[in-house]
Amino acid sequence: MVAKVKICGITSAEDACNAVWAGADALGFVFFKDSKRCILPKEAKKIIDILPPWIFKVGLFVNEEIPAVKKTADYCGLDFVQLHGDETQSYLKELSTLRIIKAIRLRDKDSLVKTDGLACELVLFDAYCATQFGGTGTAFDWRLAKEIRKTKKPYIISGGLTPENVTQAVTMFRPYAVDVSSGVEKAPGKKDKKLMKEFITHAKTT
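Request: output the structure for the sequence above.
Response:
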């Protein structure tokens, strides 16, 4: 099982280029102002404009106004919008012209209810945190692997992944992709070239 890899929380052209060099399939840009990895649309666009066409560009939003999501997606040339807040099904449907990744913050097995019916292309499973919307470096309960593998939509595994455990994650969950941010950083929003290469190599050679 070989998973695609998304490196999230990109804040500089240098980190973006290093991620591409390491073999990333997608890069994530955080447009949530309360995040340590937040980037302004105009800065993200400068980076996106120099990326190869085969790299998926993903914008992360948290409970953002729908017009703002659409405007940023169009301005930056995003391939996907990743919704990491409490967005409802009706909210998702209003963004139906965009390709959507809906993040599900897992507390327990009940969090998996109705994921297959969501109006999105991909589902991302992340750890639940009462005070943060992702990027915590914390894993959810991997004992949910059996239930997660029943998900009908293509899904992404995130939360607490590192070069040391991504092979196990790919083997256990058999995901479409894995998503990492803090696990390949030397500081919040500052990626480590060596860690990114190790992470991607392990994810793709499982």
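The beta strands are 4-7, 26-30, 56-61, 80-83, 100-106, 122-127, 155-157, 177-180, 185-187, 190-191.
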